[in-house]
Amino acid sequence: MRHTLGLLYSVFKIRISVSITLCALAGIAVTPGIGLTPWQVAALALAVLTASASAGAFNHYVERDLDVRMARTRSRPFVTGRFQPGLHWLTAILCLLVAAVLAAAFATNFVAALYVFLGAFTYGVVYTIWLKRRTWLNIVLGGLAGSFAVLAGAAAVEPGLATAPIILAIVLFLWTPPHFWSLAFVYRDQYIAAEVPMLPCVIEPKNAARVILAHTITLVALSLVPFWYGLGWIYLAAAIVGGVYFIQASYRLSQRPNRVNAKHAFTASLGQLSLLLIGAIVDAILIG
């Protein structure tokens, strides 16, 4: 049972789903207006978590033929045969997504529910099916999944959307490419062998590292802007600390484009996002 739960944790990408849920909570936190009740916040968070998990499972299901070609993904349950693909999996995934969207609509409003659906659809269909194997723009457009989570949280408070959550959604859109390109840099040989056109695989490593740095500088600069739209000093401090950390790591990668520095950039991207989202939530609780 414990082993099976671990496999389910992997298939539904719970770690990533938790991060997406934090994006939604940050969207709630940075949006001015009449606050949601605790049960509404909990319901929306669960809806986003469930929708993201369903998209993650769909990604595992669809990419099992691709995963077998990469060492980092060969141990996934659909590849090893521990989980057998079939209509029952697709039905379960669809039911989870429908339940998540309906829960979001019931607890908050239709606009928030639409964003919950669009986040899962972007990752599960736009990124996984339409783009990943065709173009290096795959993760660029796929990054909208995190943006939609922010917008779902914001729309739950105010469907019209304020400036701060829109900016934060754009930050998430800009964050995803350098985050994932850093990872793709680490596993560049595997992605090339699997014929997945991630940016570090289709251009020279040094040029890819420069693009990562440019994206990082842009998103960090933009992440400071919400301070002038109502967010407090806790958010600003978190944005600065995390941003400097990410820029330093990306700069090192641009100077010495190797796997070690790419791993550092990937880790820094996670740290920067965590500080940014937690900073926004804590700022709203203590100051806002």
Kindly describe this structure:
The protein is mainly α and 288 residues long. It has one domain (2-286). The chain contains 15 helices and no strands. Helix 2 (14-29) runs antiparallel to helix 10 (163-186) and helix 10 (163-186) packs antiparallel against helix 15. The longest helix is centred in the C-terminal third of the chain and has 28 residues, at 259-286. The protein is globular. The termini are far apart.
Low-confidence segments: none
Query: How much helical structure, as a percent, in the residues?
Result: over 70%
Q: Can you write the helix and strand succession as a string?
A: HHHHHHHHHHHHHHH
Q: How many domains make up the coordinates? A: 1
Tally of helical segments: 15
Overall outline: globular
Report the average pLDDT across residues.
95
Describe the secondary-structure layout.
Layout (H helix, E strand, L loop, with lengths): L1 H10 L2 H16 L8 H25 L1 H4 L9 H4 L6 H21 L2 H22 L6 H5 L1 H14 L5 H24 L1 H6 L5 H4 L2 H19 L9 H23 L3 H28 L2
Helix pairs in contact: 2-3, 2-9, 2-10, 2-15, 3-6, 3-7, 6-7, 7-9, 9-10, 10-13, 10-15, 13-14, 14-15
